[in-house]
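Hey, weird one. I pasted the Winged helix-turn-helix transcriptional regulator sequence into the form twice and got a warning about non-standard characters only the second time. First submission, copied straight from the form history:
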Amino acid sequence: MTAQPTVRPLVLDDFIPFRLSYTSNLVSERVARAYEALFGLTIPQWRLVAVVAETGGISQGEIGQRTRMDKVTVSRAAIGLVERGLLDRCDNPGDKRSHLLVLTGAGRALYADVAPKARDLEARIFAGFGAEEIAGFVAMLRRIDAATAALD
């Protein structure tokens, strides 16, 4: 009779995927309260505004790929932003089946107001960490992204 290997119990609080999710949710909840209170934006809406501002114009499918948000979340956020006059839809010369989302003048003004506050909130969250720690943390996150993507 062979001995069964000892299985280490799963303690959720020590399980790294859980820790990543928990911390991400904690930060996102704090950010969401700030964006909602100051600008009436949800996190998905802010992410759309930021990605569109970075790119100048982008399809909803590309937004989903860049942000890891599902199609329904991207679509709902886009509809809300178009209704508020912050985004416009325009023809996509690269793909006639889709359109590009672009910021309106009001959307650019909103981004100009939100972006510095987002950076300030980031600075407050990470104020207790040194530049080297933050750089190492970001590098580790990117490595985790790559390792996870490689599992596919």
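That's the output from the first submission. The warning seems to come from a hidden character in my clipboard, not from the data itself. The first strand starts at residue 87 and ends at 91.
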